[in-house]
What we know:
The chain is of the alpha/beta class.
Amino acid sequence: MIFKKKLIPVKFEKRYKRFFADVKKNSKILTAHCPNSGSMLGLLKKGNKSWISKSDNMKRKLKYTLEIINDGKSNVGVNTLIANKIIEEALLKGKIIEFKKICKLEREVFYSNDTRFDFKLKINNRKVFLEVKNVTLSREQGVAEFPDSITSRGLKHIKKLGLSINHGYDAVVIFLIQREDCNFFKIAKDIDHKYYKAYSENKKKGVKFIAYSCKVNNKKIEVEKKIKIIN
Length: 231
């Protein structure tokens, strides 16, 4: 995904009220929208080099959006709202090796009254539900982890994907690692043991889990390579 405008380099100051972040441009403090509902564990050190985008929409209360933070190890894409766009571009370009020759791609498809998945794919005679999870956490060198906080929404998605198999669907979770420094991925079971348990149980039922890392810079964020899952 190419950014429409060149991102603005800033220094991270603080995050507050969950979706607000103060950043410093030269000596001026700017308040940006922080489009990430996770804890952003390991990223929120004051002074971290960061990048924000600026919106031309005059109706927006916050005209800036926090897009990337460098945690000292890697550029990290923190905008969860663009994760699906990154994956969709990768799917259409054939970068996700599990999904070649896609016949049809639908976005935000309802499975039940209370659940919708990010994508529904048709590949020959296969029907696939695909759910995208954005990953920013890395606590040990070369290893990405998800989640970075307890995720009731993610838990529900895994369980519903397991049920969808009974209705003739292939069910897949793709962990999108918006980092450049990881060659492995694992579930952070110490952070959310219920999620890890659902992951283990539904993997046995046939839900597939895959992980891909990204190239992240101030011009674009795009899928780069497949990452091995180690738990």
